[in-house]
Amino acid sequence: MTIRVLLADDEALVRAGLRMILEAEPGIDVVGEAADGADAVTMCRELQPDVALVDLRMPRIDGIQAARRITSDPALGTAVVMLTTFDTDEHVVDALRAGATGFLLKSMPRDQLVTAVRAAASGEKLLAPALLRRLLEDFVSRAVTVPAPGLDDLTPREEEVLRLMARGLSNAEIAASLVLGEGTVKTHVARVLAKLGVRDRVQAVVAAYESGLVRPGRSDGGFGHQ
């Protein structure tokens, strides 16, 4: 199955470079390019891409607003991956709340770009890269702790699964860590998302940080219950 990708960046050279890398890979097709956020939203609705690579900073509508409009449209199943030049961008949490599945640096190796596109198309959330975790720890730790609705409804096992999600573990890795079947882990993850009232794993992790369930800077991996 071919993965359909939309590129959204106001720099033509960046779009050209991304296109060259992606179209050299089997099973990936760049179906369109947008030079600003407004065009990105319009083209997603017209072209129905599987993945949209969206620059965080663009004219007319920035990447955060574009991501929010794309991911909140019930007619779209497009996964949005944000692109940024800086690894300390202060808007990362806003973008994750807007529905982005993760972040990639524009200076990333080509194999990381391809892997990220394939992961996003298959429904995986890009929690593993050090960039995402570092940004979450940096910026969420500055915020006032905010109780997450539904957090108290989690069972001890579901809470444990959420902590491992926040470490960037996949379902298979969580299953291995807890000695559970992968199907059981998927059920736990689904229940966590439902109880927290969030769209995906990334937003669940943001809620875990903001509520204090997960705390950055701990020597045991950064996790603890308040």
Automatic annotation (TrEMBL):
The keyword Oxidoreductase does not apply. Residues 147-212 form the HTH luxR-type domain. Gene3D superfamilies: 3.40.50.2300. The keyword Cell membrane does not apply. Keywords: DNA-binding, Phosphoprotein, Transcription, Transcription regulation. It comes from the Bacteria. Residues 4-121 form the Response regulatory domain. PROSITE patterns: HTH_LUXR_1, HTH_LUXR_2, RESPONSE_REGULATORY. The modification 4-aspartylphosphate is found at residue 55. InterPro entries: CheY-like_superfamily, NreC/VraR/RcsB-like_REC, Sig_transdc_resp-reg_C-effctor, Sig_transdc_resp-reg_receiver, Tscrpt_reg_LuxR_C, WalR-like. PANTHER family: TRANSCRIPTIONAL REGULATORY PROTEIN NARL-RELATED, TWO-COMPONENT RESPONSE REGULATOR. This is Response regulator transcription factor.
